Amino acid sequence: MYITQVGAECTPVAKVGGLGDVIHGLSRVLAEQGHQVEIILPRYDCLRSDLIEGLHRAYEDLQVPFYDQWLSCSIESGYVDGIHCFFIDPHSDHGFYQRGRIYGEVDDPGRFAFFCRASLEFLLKTGKQPDIIHCHDWHTALVPVLRWERYEALGLERPRVCHTLHNLAHQGVAGEYLLRAVGLEPDRLMTSDRLLDRDQPHAANLLKGALVYANAITTVSPRHAWEILYTDQGMGLQETLHAHSHKLWGVINGIDEGTWDPQTDPHIVRTYGPEYLPGKAYDKRQLRRQLGLEEAAKPIVAIISQLDRQKGVELMRHTAHYALENSCQMVLLGSASEPWIDELFQELKRHTDGSADCRLILEYDEALSHQIHAGADIMVIPSIYEPCGLTQMTAMQYGVVPVVRRVGGLVDSVFDANYSDKAFEEVNGFLFDVPTSAGLESALRRAIWLWFRYPAYFRQLRLNGMYTDNSWFGPAQEYLNIFEGIRV
Ligand code: ADP
């Protein structure tokens, strides 16, 4: 099958969070299975071009209409971990992708609406007719709308569009002028069953457009597919989702086992696997040396996360207090999404920096994240909202036992050691329901207690996690089934 991914991120060249990991991991496994896969991305100035093999200019002067102008773009092309990627580089005063970062600009809706139009224009002009265009989140939500409303008639007849929802909290709400800018007709599209936003009477909701126009909608776990239909996690789009629920599926993410494998990880000092765990003990000592923590008979409780309201900021802080009060060591690696959150954690860092048992590293550090995975015993993920979550899966891969809130994809991947109906070999962590300190403690207490009192059982949980199949193979097959169902 010929599949074109269109997205705002791709690990490791343009990553903010899990979205980049998914586009990269899924593309890789589909390509390994013999499918023709390519990825279209914006040509950000902050792109890690040093990680792109054979980067070169592949297409000159692609003329893309925007408002009443034609913007000239060049297309660069190269390989990221063997996957063919195309990068759209507009030459205009807007400097759409020259901002030193991927998101967070006031004109984000315009930047990404242009990206949608340019991607389709690129496919059209180069005569590409993929079987499937796979788009992700609000940034590429206009792709299914534009394909149907404009590009089908222009000749882009073959592709069918699958749109994956990674995070409904961001929907791309903009003035209807933006539709005009990319060549759509607001008068026809601004209705309640199409793009009209539910809450803002004159605004277009781009993600809503994707739900209406895509041939298939997926979200990143079966549990989250249910949550967005039946709870407030639908973030105002429940009605539209219900109207289109016949084409909605939940497919859990996998993790890229090439990147997350303690048996081959170049970032860690001693590699290890389920058959050889002593390497993990060595890495734990190494992590302590590296972070200046005391060598002691204590579990290391870790958090690696964006420090964002959605991730349970208060519960993360409580985790640190509770772990330290209960004879554990604590390591937190995270970067804050907003200044007030940064200040909360800076304050905690000032209080704990002198401690022999606690380190807060308030930045984004990929290598350190791998080293913490290798050294830690327990990983806490106290999310308020979590469509899938990857850290619980990478943690398991490294023999770190996850303690997670019972929400979204965490429910589909973590099975409680005490309260799950799974067989003993399949339980791999601890869950809690209520997002309060008491809720968190109800699970973290059990994990810590097991580490101190029943190390053999704790070790078995580590092994169960390491043997859990969190690879992309199963999910990729599900995506292929969905693609097969909609292709012509
Ligand atoms: P998100 O909602 O942030 O995408 P996910 O759990 O799906 O959450 O994916 C986040 C990814 O980013 C994980 O691989 C996680 O380990 C990684 N990550 C988050 N914060 C940091 C950080 N400060 N340093 C390194 N890696 C991080």
In percent, how much strand structure appears in the residues?
A: 15-25%
| Secondary structure category | alpha/beta
**CATH architecture classification name of the largest domain:** 3-Layer(aba) Sandwich
Number of domains: 2
Polypeptide structure, described:
The protein folds into two domains: 2-254 and 473-486, Rossmann fold, CATH 3.40.50; 278-467, Rossmann fold (3-Layer(aba) Sandwich), CATH 3.40.50.2000. The mean pLDDT is 97. It has 488 residues and is of the alpha/beta class. Helix content is 38%, strand content 21%. It is globular and about 70 Å long. Bound molecules: adenosine-5'-diphosphate. Adenosine-5'-diphosphate (ADP) binds at residues 17-18, 21, 304-306, 333-335, 364-366, 369, 388-391, 394.
Keywords:
single chain; 488 residues; alpha/beta; Rossmann fold; 2 domains; nine-stranded mixed sheet; six-stranded parallel sheet; 17 helices; 17 strands; 38% helix; binds adenosine-5'-diphosphate
